[in-house]
Amino acid sequence: MFQTLLRQVGGYRRASLLTPLFTAAEVVTDVLIPYVTAMLIDRGILAGDAQRIYEYGALMLGLAFLSLTFGILAGRSAATAATGFAANLRSAMYRNIQRFAFSDIDKYSTGGLVTRMTTDVNNLQNAYQQILRVTVRAPFRLVLSVIMCLVIDARLSLIFLVAIAVLGLSLYHIISRVARLFARVFEQYDALNHSVQENVAAIRVVKAFVREGYEAEKFSRAAEGLYRLYVRAESLMALNHPVMNLVVYGCIIALSWWGAHFIVGGTLTTGELTSLFTYVMSILQALMMLSMIFVMLTQSAASGRRVAEIIDERPDIVNPADAVTRVADGSVEFRNVRFDYESVAATAVRQQAGISRRSALYKVSFRIDSGQTVGILGGTGSGKSTLVSLVSRLYDVSEGAVLVGGRDVREYDLAALRNAVAVVLQSNTLFTGTVLDNLRWGNPQATLGECRRACRLACADEFVEQLPDGYNTRVEQGGANLSGGQRQRLCIARALLKQPRVLVLDDSTSACDTATDARIQRAFREELPGVTKLIIAQRISTVQHCDRILVLSGGAVTGYDTHERLLADNALYREIYELQHADLGDFDAPQKGGQA
Amino acid sequence: MRQPSFGPRGERAQAGFQRANAAQRAVIWRMARLVLRDYKFSILTVLLCILVTSVTTLASTLFTRTLIDDYIVPLTQAAQPEYASLAQALFRLGLVLILGVVCSYAYNRLMINVSQGTQLRLRKQLFARMEQLPLSYFDARSHGDVMSVYTNDVDSLRQMISTSIAQVFNSVITIAVTFASMVVLSVPLTLVSVLMAVVMMVTTTLLGRRSRIHFRAQQESLGRVNGFIEEMMTGQKVVKVFCREAEAVREFEAINDRLRDSAAQANRIANIVMPINGNLSNLGYVLIAVVGAALALSGTAWAAGGTALSLGTLVSFLTLNKSFTQPITHVSQQINSVLNASVGAERVFALMDAEAEPDEGSVELTDPKGDVDFTGVDFSYTPGKQILFGIDINTSPGQKIAFVGGTGAGKTTIINLITRFYDVQRGHILYDGVPITQISKRSLRRSMSIVPQETHLFTATVLDNIRYGRLDATDEECVQAAQLVGAHDFILRLSEGYQTMLSGDGGNLSQGERQLLAIARAAVADPPVLILDEATSSVDTRTEQLVQRGMDSLMRGRTTFVIAHRLSTVRNADQIIVLQRGRIVEHGTHEELLALRGEYYKLAATGSGSIG
Predict the structure, then answer these.
(1) Per-domain boundaries in chain B
(2) Which of A194, B196, B259, B498 has fewest C-beta within 10 Å?
(3) B288 near B192, Cβ under 8 Å?
(4) Is A589 close to B610, i.e. CB distance below 8 A?
(5) How far is the CA of A252 from the CAs of A267, A282, A521, B279, in angstroms?
(6) pLDDT in the model for residue B10
(7) Digit-coded pLDDT (tens) for A341-380
(8) How confident is the model at residue B539 (pLDDT cuts 50, 70, 90)?
(9) Which of B113, B271, B501 lies nearest to residue A231, judging by beta carbons?
(10) For residues A327 and A505, what is the distance between their CA atoms, to the nearest angstrom?
């Protein structure tokens, strides 16, 4: 993990190295100042030598000026290094995420990726800056102060050594226990937040069942448990201070006692004794800083791990060597395909949770000729979306092969394949920008005329032209200012602009009313005869005019034929047909505008 | 960081003095009142302890003078050094210092109780208040916003109480006590000290002003980067499908570089505050040494109240000067972090002040029949956008009422009104003849069960999720409910059966299975009124059938309001209400409505459902 993160220092290595150097120089000058003060007192004041006072005063000012210069330089380079490091981290994560396959995205979840790129990177930036500045400062200051004490009076320095040993041991004990306690605090804290989140999401259920009091009580119990644990951890941590103070005061008393003896004995000067007092403080401050660094490192370690995980993730799908860049035609073939979503590790976790699950697809074989339209029908979880996502190699098969244009999809250049196979995903997204910007995702060079035609085919032209600025209307994030059906139609138009050989619609007209749906299907039939079309639908009416219909059940193909023949032979198809026919369809036709 | 932090905060407070605006002052006052209400005694003790600690710290600083002037100097001059009195003095000093340590631990320990206790109370209050808020509150905000009040804001509040407030007290008291003793020691040297402190404050303020400009720029770039990341991560799969990876990287790099530059600027300025202040303090040290030495050597009685400046005094003064300037640099940072935390506190208080659902009704339904009537109900979620117009519905207990109509017709809204999630603007709704506003919400909602379209389950066992419908239901009753609605079979197939833990909103179950659990939950409540929102097309026809059967067995003998998407649901309803743009356009049984040859007929006959 550290290597991965350190590699991201990249172009900021110089600034990262300069910071500790400048800091070290700053500390040296800082530490020398009390020493000069001692001489100022002894040789200037006690000797009654005004000249010496000015000389040492000037020396001190010179040192202070140096310390200031180095301090500013260190501060500036630390800022450059830390912010640069953070920018590199974000960039490295973002670039790698762009290489992620769908399975990788599923693994981390959108929210997870966002947190890692924002909060976690921010933590690391702060930690890095602190490490650069403090990690050198504290130990260096400690060592130098001890050396200065030795220089002034080796006998009295023994006091410090004893003090440091006592302090180090007790701090170590306190902190290691505190760290363990805090690990538990974090766990409970997460659990508490989880329960709040659950309540926010399910507030309707809570209210409908009048469980406000029950939930509040449940929450109170959890919060009180956290409170007790937290107080314990913090109280233990608060011991740091008295221990440190006791040690400092012990030092001061010991120094006063022995120091007085030595001064009387003539082996120590008053000035030296006062500088020793200053160094005691300095040493203890350094120790404080060290204990804080320790705490900070344990805190940011979690963030570091999470960030490194993303940077190091090897995408599940990569471009093959000697990739084929041309897709010959729109034929699609599945040969004995099996597919499992889960990695081996995930399977273990699931089995532990006690939920058994079969392969998402099993022994799937079929062939579609170029230009044919195929409907795909089946229940929830029957594997429809999975099946179509294999066509553009959004996932790799676990067994068997998928062929497009007569070649295994794994032989193609990914971009070439995905440009030839346009997929309108079930969970589709529009991006901030104008309608036209969004359409041009399909083809950056598309002219307004081409965009209009695509919209017409997708039945999107009718509402786009009524928008205040037509094709230049701004789409809000996620397409929030459009209705579900409008979004779906724009997404279809966007895919059409790719001029694909294969078009995959994953339940892409579900929010459109039946009439619009029918018009879209007709436009496809009449105006895109050469394009192979795979259409997933819930409604039989959507697919009944297709060349063939593929019926999926539990990940296996139970039928692949025309509407009429399936009606005659396929029990499942007939059942769905009768259910829908008996119901005469459904009522949930969207009305334009407004929401319930 | 979403975790509670201890030790130094990762975030850097902005440099320089900020001035509190009226809102911040109000928040801080309210915070203070909140803390004082429960912890008056603790806070008093804390203040006292801080005072004692500061004085003892000062005593240790001033001891240098006593040591040199009263003991070392006489001792060096004595022929026969006598250390007994020094030993006694050191012993007394030791006692004073131990008192200081005890007080310091005491106030730190007390502050933990105060801050954690206040946090606990805030959390409980927040949660209890949140549970009482009307749904409109949640409609208007994203879950993330509400969550962040519990995590970031409450935590920054705790931070504010635990560290900042105690530190500000500590700094202020230290400054005051130190200043007093400096004045006693030497007025001219105090003047030098104060001069340096003023210089430090001025530079800090100037730097702070500059850094704030850059911090603001940084916040803006940060917001842009975070927004971009959020949008692109949400649409990442689309990026892949359209091979837009290179483009996405290019756009990101541009704003990422901008953020880096503004962040570097802001941090550079913030980072130099510390060395500047530190060395101004060194400068002060030299100035005092030089001036003090000059005073001591010249032996002028001018120095301190008529007596010449002693060597010991000078040495003590040098140390005092450090204790004087250090808290001055700290206090500005501490005040800033209090002000920054006050933003979080403001959000916490805003949530606590949000108006609870009105619940003025006092009628308790003892034996609810489930007779619900609407008369002339008008309703709008937001003023000016009326959703329902003059709705009249009459039901008798045990009837099944189906609502039919397109999205936006007002079906869900009507249901929201029955449960009184929202209040009508005109007209009224009666339950067993009593206006629902006069019935206590508790009693009203207990008399009805809802199966929403979107299922929410809780982190608990399957059994406990079912029991959520009625907390005192026995295990047997829960199993019976599951059997009644047809959920029993799939539950048994889970590894631990009814004891299987569900997590993440039942994420390890299928959509249909989750819905069956929601139906079982409603069944165990066994209320006279049932409200069902049928699932839409996202569930396939066969699962739908299973769920349908569950719902059917649940409906028997209860007044049922159902938002129907399937004709089979509607056909045997006692009343079908056809809604169009918030108005009831047709009303009757399946046969009556078919005979009308109106909207319903169009829907049923064509199956196209295009009623817009």
Answers:
(1) 20-352, 372-604
(2) A194
(3) yes
(4) yes
(5) 19, 13, 89, 25
(6) 32
(7) 765 555 555 555 555 555 778 889 999 999 999 999 887 6
(8) low
(9) B113
(10) 20
What the block records as the tokens of B481 is: 């409910």
The per-residue pLDDT for range B294-346, each reduced to its tens digit, is 777 666 544 444 456 776 777 778 778 878 887 877 777 777 777 767 777 88
Q: Which of B150, B240, B269, B295 to mutate to test the interface with A (most CBs of A within 10 A)?
A: B240
Rounded Cα–Cα distance for residues A1 and A141 (Å): 29
ipTM confidence: 0.76
User: Are B253 and A91 a contacting pair at CB < 8 A?
Assistant: yes
Burial of A454 (0-12, 13-18, 19+ CB in 10 A): buried
pLDDT, greater one: B202 or B306: B202
pLDDT tens profile B108-157: 899 889 988 988 998 898 888 888 888 888 877 766 677 777 776 787 78
CB spacing of A26 vs B538 below 8 angstroms: no
Q: Does the CB of A497 have a partner CB in chain B at under 8 Å? A: no
Q: Helix or strand or coil: residue A234?
A: helix
Q: Quick check: A30 contacting B, CB < 8 Å?
A: yes
Over residues B200-217, the mean pLDDT reads: 81
User: A289: closest CA among A16, B278, B103, A281?
Assistant: A281
Query: In whole angstroms, what is the distance from residue A301 CA to residue A296 CA?
Result: 8
A346 and A270 inside one domain: no
The minimal CB distance from A431 to the residues B231, B252, B566 is found for: B231
- Host domain of residue A24: 2-312
Residues 6+ apart with CB under 8 A from B194: none
Ranges of chain A with pLDDT below 70: 45-46, 48, 109, 111, 295, 298-299, 342-358, 380-381, 427, 478, 579-596
Can you give the length of chain B in residues? 612
Angle among Cα A337, A339, A345 to the nearest 5 degrees reads: 150
Number of folded domains that form chain A: 2
- Looking at the complex, report in whole angstroms how far the Cα of residue B124 sits from the nearest Cα belonging to chain A: 6
Q: Of A30, A253, A380, which has the smallest distance from its Cβ to B90's Cβ?
A: A253
Domain boundary among A252, A279, A312: A312
Angle between helices A448-457 and A484-496 (to 10 degrees): 120
Bridge pairing between strands B501-502 and A332-339? unpaired
Q: Is A244 on the interface with B (CB under 8 A)?
A: no
What pLDDT is attached to residue B533? Answer: 80
Say which amino acid occupies A507: D
Residue B305 has a pLDDT of 45
DSSP class per residue in B11-67: SPPPSS-----HHHHHHHHHHHHHHHHHHHHHHHHHHHHHHHHHHHHHHHHHHHHII
Q: Which residue has the higher pLDDT, B429 or B553?
A: B429
* Residues A278 and A356 grouped into a single domain: no
Confidence of residue B576 (pLDDT cuts 50, 70, 90): very high
Window 38-67 of A: residues touching B by CB (8 A cutoff) are 40-41, 44-46, 48, 50, 53-54, 57, 60-61, 63-65, 67
Report strand pairing: B386-394 vs A332-339.
unpaired
Provide the CATH number for the domain formed by B372-604 in this structure: 3.40.50.300
- A388: CATH: 3.40.50.300
Q: Do A119 and A45 reside in the same domain of the chain? A: yes
CA distance A569 to A571: 6
- Distance CA(A112)–CA(B395), nearest Å, equals 49
